[in-house]
From TrEMBL:
One of its GO terms (molecular function) is DNA binding. InterPro entries: Cro/C1-type_HTH, Lambda_DNA-bd_dom_sf. Residues 20-62 form the HTH cro/C1-type domain. It comes from Cytobacillus horneckiae. This is XRE family transcriptional regulator. Pfam families: HTH_26. Coiled coil: none annotated.
């Protein structure tokens, strides 16, 4: 099953700009754009930072399904 990033939908739902989110997790906007647009996969460290930031924003967020 191919990887499909849902960050674009999640961030739009929370009204969060991609650049702001990238800044919050400490990565370049272009790197985050590549992840969001399914052009690259995040490193484990970046993925961990994404999950932690999403949980900080919304502790009840579902990370699956």
């Amino acid at each position: 099953m191919p990887y499909k990033c849902k960050l674009k939908v999640i961030l739009a739902d929370k009204d969060i700009k991609h650049g702001e989110f990238a800044n919050n997790i400490g990565i370049d906007k272009s790197t985050f754009s590549s992840i969001v647009n399914n052009k690259s996969l995040p490193s484990f460290e970046t993925l961990y930072d994404i999950v932690e930031e999403l949980r900080r924003i919304d502790p009840d967020i579902r990370m699956y399904g």
